[in-house]
Amino acid sequence: MLGLLLTVAMGVLAYASTDSTYPDVDPEKTARRLSGYSQDAYAALGIDRTLEGRYVDAFTHNTFGSNDCYPDGLFSFADPPVDGAYRLYQEWTLSKVRKPDALPALRGVRDRLKAKGWRVTEYGENKQTEEWSVRAERDGGYTIHVTWEAEFQRLSGFVSASCAMDPGWPEKKWEQEREDGYSGSYDGPTLNFPPALTPA
């Protein structure tokens, strides 16, 4: 019993000292905020289509995902990712969107983001890739990127948050160690599909 307590205590100390720059944030809370930002941008498109929370294929989906986070916020293959840290994003894609609909949609998103206090960092056409896009950021480390690809007639959105620690990870880790005698690496938060995105 004493050995188990010492193991848990050492694990907690290791977790706490991993990286103090990332705050503890419940992934569900982050997901709700990203969903709100996605819905706001989607409504500004002016396209009368509802996009359910699901994955159909690369041309039709509305999903959550996460990326690893690295010490000091630096992405380096030489360093292992911070255990229990995640960077959540929501990604959605509409297929069969024609240029006469896509370009006004992007203007609508740009104007909505400006009105909502986002800082627009990019807007217009990339002639090399034949893509039109709008990018923006806001305080708190949130970013948004909406792109239309001429080749695929595809309109995609990507909204992400900054890195955070999953408060529930240590408990899940210790539970796995108690049951199995070991624990794997952190695979990111487990979330359901986002709510449906609806037109204005």
Report on the structure:
The protein is an alpha+beta fold and about 200 residues long. It has one domain (about 25-165). Helices cover about 30% and strands about 25% of the residues. It has 4 helices and 8 strands; from the N terminus they run H-H-E-E-E-H-E-E-E-E-E-H. The protein has helices at about 1-20, 25-45, 100-115, 170-180; strands at about 55, 60-65, 85-95, 120-125, 130-140, 140-150, 155-160, 165. Strands 1, 2, 3, 4, 5, 6, 7 and 8 form an 8-stranded antiparallel β-sheet that branches. Helix 2 packs across helix 3. The longest helix is centred in the first third of the chain and has 17 residues, at about 1-20.
Provide a concise account of the structure shown.
With 200 residues, this protein is an alpha+beta fold. The chain has helices at 2-18, 27-43, 99-115, 169-180, and strands spanning 55-57, 60-67, 85-94, 119-126, 131-138, 142-149, 154-160, 164-165.
On the 0-100 scale, what is the average pLDDT?
86
Q: Classify the beta-strand content into a percent band.
A: 25-35%
Shape: elongated
The total count of helices amounts to: 4
Structural class from helices and strands?
Answer: alpha+beta
Extract low-pLDDT stretches.
1-20
Region (Disordered): 170-200
Biased composition (Basic and acidic residues): 170-181
